[in-house]
Amino acid sequence: MDEGQARRRTRGGGGAARRAERTAKRIEAAPRITRAIPDYELLSEAALQIIERNADTVLEEIGVTFSDNPAALARWRDAGADVRGERVHIPRGLARKLCATAPARFTQHARNPANSVEIGGRDLVLAPVYGPPFVRDAEGGRRYATIGDFRNFVRLGQMSPWLHHSGGTVCEPTDVPVNKRHLDMLLAHMTLSDKPFMGSVTEPSRAADSVEMAKILFGADFVDQNTVMVSLININSPLTFDATMMGALEVYAAANQACIVSPFIVGGAMAPVSVMGTLTQVLAETLAGVAYSQLVRPGAPVIMGAFVTSIDMNSGAPTFGTPEASQITYGVGQLARRLGLPYRSAGGFTGSKLPDAQAGYESANSLNMGLMAGVNFMLHACGWLEGGLVASFEKFVMDADQLGALHKMAAGVAMDEDAQAMDAIREVGPGGHYLGCGHTQTHFKSAFWRSQVLDYKPFETWEEEGARDTQALAGARVARLLADYEAPALDPAIRAALEAYVAEKKAAMPDAFT
Amino acid sequence: MDEGQARRRTRGGGGAARRAERTAKRIEAAPRITRAIPDYELLSEAALQIIERNADTVLEEIGVTFSDNPAALARWRDAGADVRGERVHIPRGLARKLCATAPARFTQHARNPANSVEIGGRDLVLAPVYGPPFVRDAEGGRRYATIGDFRNFVRLGQMSPWLHHSGGTVCEPTDVPVNKRHLDMLLAHMTLSDKPFMGSVTEPSRAADSVEMAKILFGADFVDQNTVMVSLININSPLTFDATMMGALEVYAAANQACIVSPFIVGGAMAPVSVMGTLTQVLAETLAGVAYSQLVRPGAPVIMGAFVTSIDMNSGAPTFGTPEASQITYGVGQLARRLGLPYRSAGGFTGSKLPDAQAGYESANSLNMGLMAGVNFMLHACGWLEGGLVASFEKFVMDADQLGALHKMAAGVAMDEDAQAMDAIREVGPGGHYLGCGHTQTHFKSAFWRSQVLDYKPFETWEEEGARDTQALAGARVARLLADYEAPALDPAIRAALEAYVAEKKAAMPDAFT
């Protein structure tokens, strides 16, 4: 029985699902990105060796803390680390050796196989913003996010022609009790989208719920044997692994589900102010975290992550799209490739409060850096505003549109005879015009990437239509996409089972809001 | 006598200039950018060889047109080209051979020697927008540019801590007769700024005026022996060199002044829709143009240019910040390095009508591409709006601010022991905080690039201060810079001589407005 057979069998249902498939509006899967362009190698071999040597020194001499987690300490002791209290001193080379069992690439399956993604190698997977407690749009301004907002972001993600992934906590549904949010969020990803998604990490029990719900959606056998979730495990920088995050990692790794092991670093606060110092700490932390995932289950899929930004020393606020963040992101990419691990970083980052020019500059800086740095999994690729405090509807579609440019850039340059266009140059000759020539006519529809949001109209037309700025144009697109949205087909029996699981779990817990 | 002595002697004056210097506000020169980071090598060796071979085929088989220019045809014939009518067929390899006498790098002198720039090699020189007939600011909207606007842009350029160059036609002073504009523009650059500037190219006689005024400013001997102007010679793509532009080039090359020889290409209209085809045409055109400059005067300083954008096939409008433009810009950079010529391209390009998010995305895409493509001279680095039809005051300072990030990025990553920060990592340890540690305290002022325009404030503060977007913040900076501006010191005798030259020239011509 191959994977496809296993999934068809475990999906069950059949008739209803097929009927639903026939009636649902067809959304094309976002094309896979397999980079045909080189990575940008910012740092020299000498610099990389220094970082690697220093990271090993950090792990051995300073060590890392696994707090409130005796089982983790025992695992490390068994593996040969020198454990003193909660501090784990990892002998030079050990962490790297343990990382060797992590796969260089893996498939994250989506319930619609056309949307499954490859994570690692030359691939780039684009996923939306993660974590904001607030949302913003031009009409409603800035406000606490609700589950209704959450569902709309999932719908927008499903409709994007460039986004590969439905994400995780696209915004925090603050109107749902904290201890029940993950259920509603998972249900939304599983029912409103057929792209891959992320699991909950805010408690080990919620990670377990994520696995259970995935088993309902994909079938238990399929989940046992395949990766269907990628979840975000943040390291508590500097050098600390807390029990909550590690508990979630343990659940996922044991279930063969993927984790991103990622420091969350505001440079100057959680890491040194220097690029080399931050790179050293990031490498030490991710080596320890990835190694730990392999202690839980050798071969568990894992992604080496780096969320790095710098601090504004005047206001203490994190800043985004800055040169230092780019330098670190390029450097971690080089280190990840040397380790043979998939790499998560970058995104459409900005500190701006509005989807304005600042948001455009900073996000474009970050998105370009992510493409060139060889990132394999780009969380926060669209929708991020105000340093991650806000998920913006307009910015979601603005960024998602720019992701199309990354797709095109990543495809590289065709160099076949037709692309060389010598006959066109001959045909047109000095002083001529290419608009009418055969080569142009053949290729004009696909030759140039074209934005679906930005304004390309003549000034007079643009003015007559209301002189709209990008936010207004994006707002119109948000409304259009939500109006056009149709849920992807889902076997009604599976939907009912998911809803029953959520209802049962909710009923068994009192509401908690902190 | 060395260069400095020559200039001190020819400047004359003395007492008055020294007094003026003492009272003038000191503006720091923009720091030189010498890239300590690698270029991005997008195309393979095989692709580059194909382009080079095809470009030679274009030059030999199709040829280039030098229109209304018998002297140019004679020069080409003497050099061994096959001239048929106005079409010059350049035997394979000849153009490349002629380019060999062009210097790989040269100095463009400013009247303030601290502002002189090196053009070529690993250097990146940043210059403002060139050519818009309109200006825009939030208060006055979009309107025809005046000489008053022009002077204000020169003042803003002088005040920028990151911009190296005062530019040329920063906007078209449409209130001055066409045949006299160049005089007022040159006078503004020479008196309101002490950064390097560009000469006029709209008629050979105006190029001659530019050289004459430069001789008044720098001294005739100095100008004979040094490059004090860089001027923009556009090729009339495809493959056509018109008499006006070539006439200006002839004046400048003969006077040992530098020209940028640059196709102006909207892909799909003036070049094939494919990247490889456009690269082939760009290389053929610049090879012919640079070679011609060397026929006029072997050794004349010249910059290989490429202004490339693509066309929106729906509206026919040029588009900016697109992946295809980036691919071409990277490719031309590789070709220029193989030729050993300084390279001009990129800029803060956008098609947006407003300094909004679209402007931010597209400009950041273009600026990053310029840095990574190895550009040596970046015209249009700040102020460009609406496809180059508009010079925007707010966008001028927004872009100029982002140029600071390019400076920092270009500086690369320090890897000395202090930058490695191992002592800081030891001092802080797991769970600690870097804000208070000695390493942070020592470096926090210079560690991170900090915008002087963008908003980093807490949400509440930002809201209390009026919830300003980037355009509003930039508008405030424009007003502040213009209020703080003081003209750099200039020998009153030189100023008087420049004014007399302009007055005399103006009096000798009737006004012309077309």
Automatic annotation (TrEMBL), chains A, B:
> What keywords sit in the KW lines?
Methyltransferase, Transferase
Transferase listed as a keyword = yes
Q: Which InterPro entries match?
A: MttB-like_sf (IPR038601), MTTB_MeTrfase (IPR010426)
What protein name applies here? Methyltransferase
E.C. number: 2.1.1.-
Q: Which family does it belong to?
A: Belongs to the trimethylamine methyltransferase family.
Q: Name one GO biological process term.
A: methylation
Question: What Gene Ontology terms describe what this protein does at the molecular function level?
Answer: methyltransferase activity
Q: Where is this region: Disordered?
A: 1-23
For this protein, the record's Pfam families field holds: MTTB
